[in-house]
Amino acid sequence: MSLRAPLGRVLGHGSAKEGVQHWWLQRLTSIALVPLGIGFVASLLTLPALDYATLVAWLHQGSTALGLVLFVLVAARHSQLGVRVVIEDYVHGGGLKALSLVIVEFAHVLLAAAAIFAILKIALGGRL
Fold first, then answer.
1. Does domain 17-123 have CATH number 1.20.1300.10?
2. What is the value of pTM for the model shown?
């Protein structure tokens, strides 16, 4: 007795076996975003002021810059995973779907790289 659908048996198509890994990655990134986000907001709330000089001094701390870089990396990956699911579910043309997935991947990498560059530039005092 097989639990596969009749059409799946005829066509020989089965599970792509990638859904569980994607599901776990999305859950792990969301769990990681909770302490990173709370730490970021709590750190901002403890600042005496939110002016430019205070924020630059705050970013000069190594732990702040590291935490912010981690936050950007995890948030970008989490966002990319979520947008990928939306595209896979709602874009039906094969070529358009592939193009959309490539664009989303590059856009997330570009945005994360730009954010990390900005963080490091401020944290290192503009020496980049």
1. yes
2. 0.82
